[in-house]
Amino acid sequence: MPDQKTVRLFAKLMESDDEEINLAEAALLIARTEYPELDLSLQLSRLDRMAREVPTDPEGSGLGNVVSLNEYLFEREKFAGNEDEYDDPRNSFLNDVLDRKKGIPITLSLIYMELARRRGLPVSGVGFPGHFLVKYATGSGEIIIDPYNKGAVLTRKDCEERLKKNFGEDAEFRPEFLAAATTKQILSRMLNNLKGSYFRRRNFLRVLRMIEMGQAIDPGSREGLRDRGMVYLLMGRYAEARADLMACAALSPPDDPNLKEIKSALARLRAMMN
């Protein structure tokens, strides 16, 4: 399990209003679950230094600033999407992405946002289904940017086509897919990515780490109870699995699509524990 001091620091940070949470600091606390000795101040100073090197102008054109950010990150510094090892957990740790200059959409977007914000630029994350993006607010609208693909500028039509490519021709585009993501939503998505990556490696202790961090964001999450209960079941920790799954079932409405699976797991547990 993660160092409890790190969990407490993360939980304390999550008690703040969303706009008061330092996204980079919180992301580094997630990384500290894997790297207990990680120096957060040192990593934050790296972002500060990088931001000072970007020749942007808050009073200049939005597209011009996007070009400057793209040239700095993707041409000069050679940050890139890690297509060959997409599922590597290191792609989700901010310190690793800064070191290796490889990441997945959400961590490359996080770096993009942090540099832009330090330069006073109006950027926000976009929790687009299946592929995290960034948007830059201009006087006449928004510029949608894909940091995973070297800062490519996307139109709404591009986003609609990407949705259908990833989820099928019947996938219906909704305007909220391009809404600004909150800090807690971004952190939850990072934790879910790590949870999935560790689960596919059957590294259940690390899955539990990510669930615990997620519960600091949303302490009443039924999903957290369900996932932890299912992981305990796979680990043979039956009493803990039963407690979590019973609590989840009690909190779930009758039409919850996961309720059938939860009840089935509880039935298996009763048979194993008798």
Point out poorly predicted stretches: none
Q: What class, by secondary structure content?
A: alpha+beta
Q: Report on the biggest sheet.
A: 4 strands, antiparallel
Number of helical regions: 12
What is the string of SSEs from the N terminus onward? Answer: HHHHEHEHEEEEHHHHHH
Give the amount of beta strand, in percent.
5-15%
Radius of gyration: 20 Å
User: Which sequence of strands runs across the widest sheet?
Assistant: 3-4-5-6
Arithmetic mean of pLDDT: 95
Give the topology, please:
Elements: H1 4-14, H2 23-32, H3 40-52, H4 62-76, E1 80-81, H5 94-100, E2 102-103, H6 105-118, E3 123-126, E4 133-138, E5 141-146, E6 152-154, H7 156-167, H8 183-200, H9 204-217, H10 222-235, H11 238-251, H12 259-273
Parallel strand pairs: 1-2
Antiparallel strand pairs: 3-4, 4-5, 5-6
Helix pairs in contact: 1-2, 1-9, 2-8, 3-6, 8-9, 9-10, 10-11, 11-12
